[in-house]
Amino acid sequence: MPEEIIIETGGLGYVCFISNNTYDNLPKPGEEVSLLTYFHVTENNQQLFAFSEITERELFMMLIGVSGIGPKTAIVLLSAVSPDEFKRRLIASEVGMLTALPGIGPKTARRIIVELKDKFVKLSKDELPKEELDVTPQVSDAYDALLALGFQMKDIKNAISKASNQSEKLSTEELIKEALAELR
C-alpha cells in the first residue's frame, strides 16, 4: 500500500503521508474526500500527514509527543494496527507488538508504553458516563477489563447493564463472563 497520496485542492496537489488505515478508508481516485491533517515543519522540511479518522490523528499526536518518535515512525506504528487495537495492546503493555515494527527497539517500545499507557487508561475512564463511575467495585473492574480487551464503550455499557440486571451480587469474574457472553 502507498505511504503517500496526492490530494488536489484549488488546483494544487499536496503530497500527504498516510497510514494503511487511512488508505483503506479512501474512496476511489477522483472522488471527493475529507481528511484531517497535521502539518509538520522542521528546519529543512515540511510534511503533510493525513488521517481519515479523528482517533487516528489524536493517537498520531500523542505518539509524536513521545521522545524519539517522529511523524514517519508514528505513521509506521499506525499502519501496523488500528488505533483501537494499538490502544488495547498499549494498555496491556505488549512490548512485542512495538518491537516487531521497523525502527522500534526495546527501549523505545518501553518509553512509548510508559509515556502513553496512563493517558489511555485515563482517557478510557473519562469516556465512562459519570453515573457508571459511581457503581460497585465489581462493575468498575469489569469495565476496565473489557476496555483492556478492546471492546467499545457503548457495547460494554449495554453488556454490563444486562448482566447486572440478571443479578446484583455478581463477582467481578462472573460479571465479566456474563458481559462477554452478551458481547459475542
UniProtKB/TrEMBL annotation:
The protein's name: Helix-hairpin-helix DNA-binding motif class 1 domain-containing protein
Q: Which terms does the UniProt entry file under GO BP?
A: DNA recombination; DNA repair
Q: Which UniProt keywords apply?
A: Cytoplasm, DNA damage, DNA repair, DNA-binding
Q: Which organism is it from?
A: marine metagenome
Q: Which Gene Ontology molecular function entries are recorded, alphabetically?
A: ATP binding; DNA binding; four-way junction helicase activity
Q: Where is the Helix-hairpin-helix DNA-binding motif class domain?
A: 61-80, 96-115
Give start-end of the signal peptide: none
> Which GO cellular component terms are attached?
Holliday junction helicase complex
